[in-house]
Amino acid sequence: MNTTSRGARRSISIAMAGSGGSGVLTAGTLRLEAAAKAGLYGLMVRTSGPQIRGGEAAALIRLASEPTQSLDDGFDLLLAIDWQNIHRFADEIPMRAGAMVVGDADEGEAPEVFLRNGARAEAVPLKKMSKAIAGSWTNMVALGVAGAIASIPLEALEAALSGTWKRGPAALEANLQALRAGFEKGAQIGALPALETPPANGKRWMLSGNEAAGFGALRGGVRFVAAYPITPATEMLEWMSPALTKVGGTLVQAEDELASINMIIGSSYGGVPSLTATSGPGLALMTEAIGLAITAEVPVVVVDVMRGGPSTGIPAKSEQSDLSYAVNGLHGDAPRVVVAPTSIADCLAATQWAVHLAEKLQTAAIVLSDQFMGQSRAIIDEPANIGMVAERLVVEANAPDFKRYRNTESGISPMSIPGTPGVVYTADGLEHTEAGIPSSQSVDHKLQLDKRERKLLKHDYGSAWADIEGDGDAAIITFGSVTGVVREALARAAGRGVRAKLIALRLLAPALPERLERALDGVKRVLVVEQNHSAQLLRYLRSVYDLPGRPSSFHRPGPLPLRPGELADAIVEWRNQ
Amino acid sequence: MNDVVAPIDSGRKPLTAASFKSAYKPVWCPGCGDYSVLGSVTKALAMVGVPPEQVAVVSGIGCSSRIPAYTSCYGFHGVHGRALAAATGLKVARPDLTVLAAGGDGDGFSIGGNHLMHACRRHAGPPHIVMENQVYGMTKGQPSPTTEPDWDSKLQPSGTGMRIFRPLVIALASGANFVARAFSGDPNGTADIIAEAIRHPGFSFIEILSPCVTFRPEQREWKQIARPSPVGPTDDAARAARRLMTDDGFNIGVLYAGNRKPHPIGGKPATKTVEELTAEFAL
């Protein structure tokens, strides 16, 4: 695409693939580390077959001269340690014309599907080279080959390997040798155009969206987590477990999602900011108790790392198809907060904000992350701390005339925390009076429904409700991980003389019609971009806002990511209509 | 039950059972065993001697699950079947509080049965008090897991045909460290057992036979059938299991008291600040 035609490349895309246990994900992570050491930005997306172990896996890496949050349209290099079932990745790893496909001839020929567009095949005896160096691994030879082709300096590769090595020095030496042997071989095959090194402008981080969300939760003040393992949220919990211990918090592995959500409601009722993380099926199980948190006004944060659904769906691949469920999927009239991070880096800030909102508004906040952000690692500029933390309005001991669900102007009622004398109450999922006594009276129901709605609508969400960029009389509305693709597509469309405003919604619920109206001031046409089958964002927007004109939609289900090239084409076509 | 049981710090009135009762009038039917259980719970709390604001009573849904608001303690009346989950989260996050989980047999054994097993295994607390009446009372008379297989009801006209669930055996097999059966017709004995369960570290399980005189009027006869267990508690789980598999469900008392120490969850002092964790991400 456009990146191949320029003199100085802004990004290159590399896929490393192999069957399970071949170490491609380790090699991919090291490549990203090495690129970071060489001063580049980058993104690594993990993909794997349905098997837990032993199936095929691939690391999809994009190295760039600027921060990048999306995959490119095609790949410049595919390096496969073996070809077993790698053809299953054919549509996830589209090769560019002129790309290189490198494999081990002893493992068979490269599948035709990768060469169809004019990529050239190269053979490197990866296994033999590794065998010749006692104690070394094939994936380290592969890392050297791919590193040389991508013009990553050998020192950066060596430093990445040495820096993360956890075994003995002899094995490290053997693998450094393998790395160098691979590097030498790779240099003979050829090199992709070198990337412009961006200026070293401050500190950089490397992390996954799941780690970022976990850290954002801690920064927001979460000190209790209960959760049940589920792909692709598990890594968030595995990161949080030791991290919580370090900061004096606690993680409980619950027996199921019903227990997870009820445990965090219990802990939060006890005054401790609490969170659970799950994926679509788990969110479905949790919804009864999310209604309880909303009714009893107990703050909780639920992170949903979305995957292909419904049902078990496509567990290890991304999709934005829990949106409708997150914004609508509770029984009764149950106003909740739904926040969606717009990038890996934003998983941190958005989750931190969600903790703040849940605590401040004494309600349930759902964070809609997804597998693409959650399981991908990125090199990013060190994000600024948004400074939002848990601030719960708490009543003092022996406060006179305490009513837990008092009808305040803001809708937020001071909460008492167990252990505090003189302000004892029973939190209840039954509709209740201001004092918290169960009531089936219409007047109490209406008053409490109004109060629970009002506290969300009266809150000032500031500018964080959406990222708004550019201007003009046409706007793209999107959310979540697709935002990075839209941003890149808009930049490309601008290169073709076509412009549009970007509105990436971070706050999906409650809907803020006045703010969107202001953002859409002067906009005559809207394109809604999302990754699901039924255009859930478009449907939702139409149900809560009056969009100008006849809105257009660009939507496709997972698991394939939206590509910036196809979206740029779609934007140009939409603008020329 | 106005007897003074435990004095507390000066400047406050001594704690009595009445100190733990709220002003709310229960929704229970006249003659319901749960009134007596409420009395035993409040008496036990006075015996243990923690002030009401340091106690949280957590429940799910059902007649007996209305108990939190009838105490002067902090209360949590959650969703059906999840009392143990909410109570576990609260106890682990706030180990300083005295937490009780309470409810009925439908809540605890049917919809919430999975949590019972795992609370026994986890052994993190709190005590679980199940008011057993072998019927769903709040929904007006359907069979619960502990109802006899041939009990007629509108929903199951010729009975469920399902074997009864043996909660104490399940608790024991799941690793419960304290297993007891009490009877609402013996409020003082029940209070003693609840107090002992609260003092016993970690999770403990108490089934309290508490007749439903509305939908199971024949349970009035429990008064004649319930008897103190002929043998005292054992700390031998295999022996306890044999006894529980053969008993008729009316032996009252602490039936198993093991020596398993609770597994500590969390509660460790912080060794790092949150901002120090950024070192993991910094390049």
| Unreliable spans of chain A | 1-7
CATH homolog superfamily of chain B? Thiamin diphosphate (ThDP)-binding fold, Pyr/PP domains
For the record, give the distance between the C-alpha atoms at the N and C termini of chain B, rounded to a whole number.
Answer: 67 Å
**Largest interface: pair, residues per side:** A-B, 63 and 53 residues
Structure description:
The complex is a heterodimer of chains A (577) and B (283). With 577 residues, chain A is an alpha/beta fold. Chain A has helices at 24-37, 126-131, 138-149, 154-164, 169-189, 209-220, 234-246, 257-269, 280-296, 323-328, 344-361, 371-375, 442-457, 482-495, 513-519, 536-544, 564-576; strands at 11-19, 41-48, 56-64, 75-80, 95-103, 120-123, 204-208, 224-227, 250-253, 274-278, 300-306, 337-339, 364-370, 377-381, 426-428, 466-469, 474-479, 501-505, 507-509, 525-530, 552-555. In chain A, the strands form three sheets. Chain A has an eight-stranded mixed β-sheet. In chain A, α4 packs antiparallel against α5 (169-189), α6 (209-220) runs parallel beside α7 (234-246) and α6 runs parallel beside α11. The longest helix of chain A is centred in the first third of the chain and has 21 residues, at 169-189. The two termini of chain A are 24 Å apart. Chain B has one domain: Thiamin diphosphate (ThDP)-binding fold, Pyr/PP domains (Rossmann fold), CATH 3.40.50.970. Helix content of chain B is 28%, strand content 14%. Chain B has an eight-stranded mixed β-sheet with strand order 2-1-3-4-6-5-8-7, sandwiched between helices. In chain B, 51% of the residues are buried. β15 (426-428) of chain A pairs parallel with β2 of chain B.
